[in-house]
Design a protein that fits this description.
18 helices, alpha+beta, Pyruvate_phosphate_dikinase, Glucose Oxidase, domain 1
Length: 546
């Protein structure tokens, strides 16, 4: 089909060579890039043009968020999708060479985890044989199919994810997902399809066009989800902006032992140390890391098993900082030993990290002095400090457990198991620690009121942990000795049971959890304060140049 009438709000993300054959309307407008494509897709386009390996994608821009579905439906299926199929050499729903895509949100302003994503769209009973022939990997195909049913069921059909988790737990009998053979995953997929029918009152859609259309509709609608509205209200983000939707060719972190998914920061977002800060899961997809429902590990295993990928990741992280002139939060997938970049954005960081990163980027020549000053001029010097435990000699606070430190500082308060309890006790003047099974962004409103967050599962790069750092809340995730006892309104650390309402202390610097309230001390960073004061002295006169 001719692309002479390329829609105004529809764009392709691909390498320079692929884009040369398309009309200019298919290229994002430089002057309005992030506003029309959303921050995520605009940055992807910049990364692709800079030569980073980005899977090709189709973007339905933010103007479609305020238009009837018939407008974007025509742009998607009549023009955009055929061109994406041409670039990838695959077709959505094709029985021989099926195209599988992810459907992702992306507002002009970064809103980590506040909107929805659906992965593996395009799998159905008819396309499974084609994927089996293409990949020769039945485990990958059945794992991806069951993930699609669960993800689509949650995001589009509104099914409680616990339904699918219960089916997985029943079949796995304590085994890790990665150890399940393809026949077990095939059985699990069929059970998921039954769960979908039972919960939704209709079969899972076997039309891949219906899958794609309804996924896009749900992602656009997630702009108005309660957690997204709450986040925008407290961050001062204009609700009229809307979100774009990115439809991107899937790459598979669940392909084999040389595959996986990760999230990273180009520098440590807790204190600004200039080193990559990466969480990674082998044989996983991206939502496993960012959703907060699984615990991830640091980069050590990735560097040991795939050193060439780790080296490429480090080089790419440095390029991202030069490209965007700031510390970046990025997502990536490794498929059979090949690295693909899926996202980059300015990373959320603590106030202390913000100061150090700005000064370091200035010293490295990435930004100029005025930019560094503008990024730090509103920071209070007393905020450039670390809060630590202050136990006297001979004191030994009772340590209940430990997890992964995700946001630094010390926080103490009453243990609370849900948002309602947090709101009620805070209204009565109490300080509260929210304790949850998973580090999920659905808890963002409660987290805003609480002093800190403790979870049994999750990664330090999961969306909830990212938001906690942005809010300055102490956060410890992945406390594996923690067991929630909701019927008893209590939790258990090993053998010790702690009832809701009892006090605990979180050490977000070391990842420890203590019984009761523990004394703290504030340790100023005198050297960092001095550097900020010296920078401010350069701009003491209004309008003075660097």
């Amino acid at each position: 089909m001719s692309v002479r009438h390329w829609p105004e709000a529809c764009y392709l993300i691909a390498g320079r060579d692929e884009l040369e054959s398309l009309p200019r309307k298919a290229h994002p407008p430089q002057s309005e890039g992030a506003l029309r494509l959303g921050n995520k897709a605009w940055n992807l386009w910049c990364m692709a043009q800079a030569g980073l390996r980005v899977p090709p994608a189709l973007v339905l821009g933010t103007p479609y968020a305020h238009r009837p579905a018939s407008d974007w439906d025509e742009a998607l299926f009549s023009v955009g999708l055929p061109e994406l199929e041409r670039i990838t050499g695959r077709r959505l729903g094709d029985a021989r060479r099926p195209l599988l895509v992810s459907v992702r949100s992306g507002a002009p302003v970064s809103m980590p985890g506040m909107m929805e994503t659906v992965l593996d769209v395009g799998l159905c009973d008819e396309t499974v044989p084609g994927m089996l022939r293409l990949t020769g990997n039945p485990r990958l195909v059945w794992d991806s199919y069951r993930r699609l049913v669960a993800g689509y069921g949650e995001v589009v059909a509104g099914i409680d994810p616990g339904v699918f988790e219960a089916a997985l737990a029943e079949l796995a009998q304590g085994q890790e997902e990665q150890t399940l053979a393809f026949d077990a995953l095939r059985t699990l997929t069929r059970r998921y399809l039954e769960c979908y029918r039972e919960q939704a009152g209709e079969p899972f859609p076997q039309s891949v066009r219906v899958q794609l259309r309804e996924s896009v509709r749900a992602v656009f609608a997630s702009w108005n989800a309660p957690k997204a509205v709450d986040y925008r209200r407290h961050q001062g983000i204009d609700g009229a902006l809307g979100t774009a939707v990115t439809i991107q060719q899937m790459v598979f972190g669940n392909a084999d032992r040389r595959s996986g998914a990760g999230v990273g920061f180009t520098r440590d977002p807790t204190d600004g140390t200039p080193r990559p800060w990466v969480d990674f899961l082998f044989e996983a997809q991206g939502e496993d890391v960012v959703s907060g429902r699984r615990s991830a590990v640091g980069h050590e295993r990735l560097a040991a098993r795939l050193p060439q990928v780790w080296a490429e990741l480090g080089e790419g992280a440095a390029r991202l900082e030069r490209l965007f002139a700031d510390m970046q939060d990025f997502e990536f997938t490794v498929e059979e030993g090949t690295l693909f970049w899926l996202q980059a954005r300015a990373g959320k960081r603590t106030l202390r990290a913000a100061a150090r990163i700005a000064l370091d980027l200035l010293a490295e020549g990435v930004i100029d002095a005025r930019t560094a000053w503008e990024r730090t001029r509103d920071l209070a010097l007393e905020e450039l400090a670390t809060v630590r435990l202050a136990t006297a000699e001979g004191e030994a606070p009772q340590r209940l457990g430990s997890g992964i430190p995700a946001s630094p500082g010390i926080a103490g308060g009453e243990l609370a198991l849900d948002a309602e309890r947090v709101a009620a006790r805070v209204a009565q003047g109490a300080k509260v620690i929210l304790v949850r099974q998973d580090a999920e962004t659905a808890d963002v409103a409660a987290l805003r009121q609480a002093e800190g967050l403790l979870t049994r599962r999750g990664a330090r790069t999961s969306h909830a942990a990212v938001v906690a750092r942005q809010m300055g809340k102490v956060c410890v995730v992945g406390c594996e000795t923690l067991t929630l006892l909701p019927e008893q309104r209590a939790v258990r650390f090993g053998e010790r049971v702690v009832a809701e309402g009892e006090t605990i202390t979180l050490d977000g610097n070391e990842g420890s959890v203590y019984a009761g309230l523990v004394r703290t001390q504030t340790v100023p960073d005198a050297a960092l304060q001095a550097q900020i004061m010296a920078l401010r002295a350069r701009f003491a006169g209004e309008g003075q140049d660097a």
